[in-house]
Amino acid sequence: MMSALLKTGSLKMKIIWAVVLIMMCLAPLISTEFRLSLLAKFLALAILAIGLDLIWGYGGVLSLGHGVFFGLGGYAMAMYLKLQASGSTLPDFMGWSGLSGLPWFWEPFRSFPVALLLGIALPALLAFALGWFTFRNRITGVYFTILTQALVLITVTLFVGKQEWTGGTNGITGYNAIFGFTLHSAGTTIALYFITLAILVLAYLLCRRVVNSRFGQVLEAARDGENRVRFLGYDPAGFKTLAFALSGALAGIAGMLFVLQVGIISPSMMGIVPSIEMVLWVALGGRGTLIGAVIGAVVLNAAKTGISEAYPEGWLFVIGGLFVTVVLFMPNGLVGVYRHVVRLLKRRGEVVHVPVSQEKPKVY
Predict the structure, then answer these.
(1) Is 271 within 8 Å of 156 (Cβ atoms)?
(2) Which terminus of the chain has fewer CB atoms gathered within 10 Å of its CB, N or C?
(3) Could you report the per-residue pLDDT of 170-180, keeping only the tens digit for each?
(4) Which residue range(s) make up the domain with 234?
(5) Rounded Cα–Cα distance for residues 356 and 90 (Å)
């Protein structure tokens, strides 16, 4: 009976998410170009949230440095777009900084396939290297979180200081086309929206397959008891490192899609505050659920946009209040609240629908 109920519930959820996906596919028909571009940006950020949930929700490793991986992917795509926009001349900010030639490490970004590959590989390799040296030395918990914050500070300082290479605090902007198509035209906006939606679905399915595999089971076991996993013959460091690398790769993909939607990338988007916001997306949606990360990223960024439009200075107070609310009253996020309500309704239904013949006789 219980298995039948679980199957029925699972079928209902599949139907619900299928309907949601269909509605998302119909969004270009009912949304303005500006709102569609915003939604695509939120979906790109949801890809990052899925990767962060993989390492935090299932691996128990809190990273406050995902802004770096996001930024590396964004800069890789921006460098390609800037070189295409500049043609045979130097990018404008390099000329302002006194450079006479293109730096050697910019040359590979003239090719879109290479830029795409580097936008995924660079954050993945950086995450792998950081995970390898820290997890091998059993640096976890708050110490690992502090290290990721240090990574953010070092990276942002480097990108701001090397203005002739990265554009400094202004970042890289001044491009508006890809493959000859204007980025902000209606057709390109719709195409980028569907590409982002498709990649989000693929990222979710990939991470869901990972967490449901033996790899995911060991990762969760290491989260709950690392010493026990090590005693059973598994190497928790290796599993966490690979999960962290995959999480970094997804953040890089999100950064590349974000640049295509917004048209700019700067060191401010790699800082500590954006990295904390990324953690809040997962916490609000419900860590350890994957779909909660998507919900949290979309809902929180939509709220940020709406509140910022009405009260530009009020968003910081809202995000602080949300953080306190989630920690104190919603430890399992929106998905946890939903599941709690469903359990309460099921219990109430079971109590109400108990047949009279099955009630215990009163004893006097």
Answers:
(1) yes
(2) C
(3) 899 988 888 88
(4) 35-271
(5) 84
